[in-house]
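Reviewers asked in the last cycle whether our approach scales beyond single polypeptides. To address this, we selected a multi-component target totalling 410 residues and predicted its structure end to end. The input consisted of the following lines:
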Amino acid sequence: MKFKVIKKDRQTKARVGKIALAHGTIETPSFVPVGTQATVKALSPRDLHEIGVQVFFANTYHLYLRPGADLIAKIGGIHKFMNWDNPIMTDSGGFQVFSLGLGKYKFKIGDEKTKVFFGQERKGITGEKLVEISEDGVEFKSHLDGSKHILNPEKSIEIQHKLGSDIMMSFDDCTPYPCSHEYAKLSMERTHRWATRCVRIHRKLKNKPHNLSQNLYGVIQGSIYEDLRIKSAQFIDSLNTSGIAIGGVSVGESKKEMYQVLDFVNPYLSEDKPRHLLGVGEIDDVFAAVERGIDTMDCVIPTRWARNETLIVSPETSRKEQTKTPCRLSIKNNKYIEDTGPIDQNCDCYVCKNYTRAYLNHLYRSGEILGIYLGTFHNVYFMTELFRKIRESILEGKFIKLKKKWSLQD
RNA sequence: GCUGAGGUGCCGGAGCGGUCAAUCGGAGCAGACUGUAAAUCUGCCGCCCGACAGGGCUACGUAGGUUCAAAUCCUACCCUCAGCA
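The resulting structure, written as structure tokens, was:
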């Protein structure tokens, strides 16, 4: 990987850069849609190209369970498997330690038991514990069939090597929120040990002849605690991975706390490494992250919202529509039944140029699959385009101006 | 015309003397969702008053009746559907 910072914003830490990879170059800042199962849900690679998506984010855990990393390797790697020849990032499965373990369960570190909370109970959780953490790694019970699987740093990286992604994440332990300092510290230290193991196995595997140029990002943890986040930033930065990811954010803490974490970490990250923010975000988060020096960020929001009747719009549009929450338009609302306007007045996407809210409303009401397709297309386009504008604004020295324009206040 | 089954809230469909303004679906109305166990989940969903607690009213084809008490029992009528003529 070659990473180059092309331009730095004068007033903020925002920067424009290029990440050159085996499958192409990513212009940053860039949004990274999530495509957990080797598909950005509802969109084809052709759509992604049309939208201008440069890279997306697949998942080790899911692809390992189905269809299996060996199968994908046998077929020629994830790019060939899914007909996408641009860059791909893969998550390590670390987040599933959190998301599958979440609920009213107890997390274990050795003999230490710490109670964790996560407000929302979700249907589909059987009440059974799907995750058991130990120093070696994590034992998962497959959410698909209940079978038991071990994921640890070595295995996660091996799988990611088999998948053949351009950027891999180190296997981390993502703590829930809230989380005691004591627990966060123990968990972070383990994440560091795991990161070291990831680096080691990555070096070993890198020498294998079949390997394309694959790159590893270390993942910073430490919950919301300043001392921990600093420690973690220093440690992960010292590992000399190609890039750095910030994890354990957007797990239930406030936005303010989340932005603080970025501020804590910032001074300790090498300028010449790309920084990825894991699992963020909404429009206001995007600006908050970019101005704190984030280069790439992945998030399920555009794709998931589109499946749940929520379309992303500009603050201007959402003000005009008096939406309950900024930048979200609930397309199924009965006020759009006869609305012949586009989703967003200022969006140039295929959907906004050719379809009315009335039609989208009808598709969603009817449960038609096309509604989800068009909605996803719009949402992903909207985020991709927003980042294009952000890049442009930084290059022109107008980032702050753009940020003000997109401000959710007033 | 005879025989049988049935008529319940926007729709489907439970309930078969009190705990029924009525289970449960669907539709409808709104909300949530941030490294995807998510095309998912949550709330509301007869009318009126109340911020809430709660209170009042009208309701289970229609009209009577029995009972302290009826969607639930009885009588008549009206209407559907199935089979036979």
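Residues 103-127 of chain A have pLDDT under 50 and may be disordered. We regard this as preliminary and will revisit it once experimental data from Aim 1 are available.
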